[in-house]
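Why do we care about 3D structure at all? Because function follows from shape, and shape follows, mostly, from sequence. That is the central idea of this module. The next example makes it concrete: a single protein chain, its amino acid sequence, and then its structure expressed as tokens.
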Amino acid sequence: MTTVRERARIEEVVGEHVTLKPAGVGSLKGLCPFHDDRSPSFHVRPQVGFWHCFGCGEGGDVISFLQKIDGLGFTEAVEHLAGRVGVQLQYEEGGAVRPGEEPGRRQRLLEAHRHAAAFYAEQLLTPGAAVGRQFLAERGFDRSAAEQFGVGFAPQGWDHLLRHLRSKGFTEAELTVSGLLSQGNRGVYDRFRGRLMWPIRDVTGDVVGFGARRLLEEDQGPKYLNSPDTALYKKAQVLYGIDLAKREIAKRRQVVVVEGYTDVMAAHLSGVPTAVATCGTAFGPDHARIVRRLLGDTSAGGGVQLASGASTGGEVVFTFDGDEAGQKAALRAFGEDQKFYAQTFVAVEPSGMDPCELRQEKGPDAVQALVAGRQPLFEFVIRSTLRRHDLDTVEGRVAALRASAPVVAGIRDAALRPEYGRMLAGWLGMEAETVLREVSAAARRSRDGGERGSEPGRRHPTMPGPGERPGGAGPDGAPARPRLVGPDRTDPVAKLERNALEVLLQHPGAVDAAAVDDLAPDAFTVPAFRAVHEAIRAAGGLTSAAGGSPAAWVDRVREEAALPVQPLVLELAVTPLPEDRPDAVDGYARGVVTALVDLGITRRIADLRGRLQRMDPQREVEAYQAAFADLIALESRRRALRQDA
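And the structure:
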């Protein structure tokens, strides 16, 4: 396990799910994937191999990250990482396995999907797949395009895939659980038959499911058939093409949401490599969270919307057909807009063509032009609302105003609301003051209908935090892990003690180990910090950290810490240091620790002076002289310490 954790680069694993940006020396930050993060509170420190979110308090190593992000058990997460970094695992007899599960089950399911994807891709080249190749050719996709996206073909018949995967050593039970087979009265059979196949991959590139397009007239099934929800595949949490688009999304700070597999292919082949699609379901909250993490969607104001429709921040572009169904989809997307701080847009082709059709009819440039000509989502929704009313009559205009005002009032960015209010006035042919009053009234009605004084995404001091339940219960009603109450961050002594512990955990080699190890047990006055110091001493002190890796040092301290203290150890080990110049970090570390030692000496000097004042030098000659000598030595040591600082 230790070998796996050391070889798996935490910044690479986390970076596949979260866009990370530099946050000081040796630190990276991004939006937390485990709660609705409005600003980058999620930090990763590769040197020590840990991550921590300062918003929700979650943290851990690369293994625990995979467990949480993918819903894996400990064994599955270790197996996934081991396969990734080329470590051969050995299982001990009698080792702990989750009830009802064999070790490596998730890895087995992923392997089955990988073999299935390869099988389908090979079948696309066979004579029986001519109808599939024709479908692709008619839409302008050649063999190289099919290979780029892994498109394949499921042959007709009931057990072609079953027999193939049996030959690879997979059992019927495994394949049924994977969703690759279906169960009938006469036994199991291939779920996909006589269909064009698209492998659906997660953000790491693993195949977790399939999308299948009907081709044959005798096929009475739905036009598109997806894998069922399984341990690997949750359609509400997967975006097709995300594995290919993730790097460009992070680079361009743009994601284009299209409606189908061929639309994703057409967009990528047309120079829009940020295109993704949902898999048989509407774009929802889980999709929004994935997009926000990849965008690094952190702008508190959501970016500035320019008159041209451009945005200074990241952007999400929804493409919809121009028909009524497409307009309804855009209205649903408006409901998800509040999940983004990036600006949201709609790109609708006037004649109703989707990106695949547009590429066929007018070429790749037309697809790029469609995205470039995107329209702000707010404007699209408002205009769609107005089209449902007769604006040639007074009654129609008033009804349109009442229907549109809540839309304007619901715009998250306060700076945009009055501007859209004035635009609405122009579209209606009304006075701006009249429209803005109605927008304000709609906003008041909305507030009266919900909680007063609450801010979206802002945790109320008395409310339970992410994953908590009222009364200190955790998820599923289980008792929550006890946590120490944090100190007052405005207290300069508490701040110094915290900074010192950050240094001791992150840069133990930069300070005088002997001086630190000589610190008295009461050197830290804050109880929580004293507990961390005790764990450092229990781990062998700073002297034992010399020569080892920072990750191993932090791990030892965390293991020695009491259960309620462990999250604090992790937090301190990941916190970015105030000093962000690499060549000045060691000097900062020494300065902080020197200040702490100075504080401890000053405290002891004060205690000694008080003790001397209470003593009778005539009656307690020896004790008085000894205490006085200690005082002189401490004052001399402090003086030397300050001269060297």
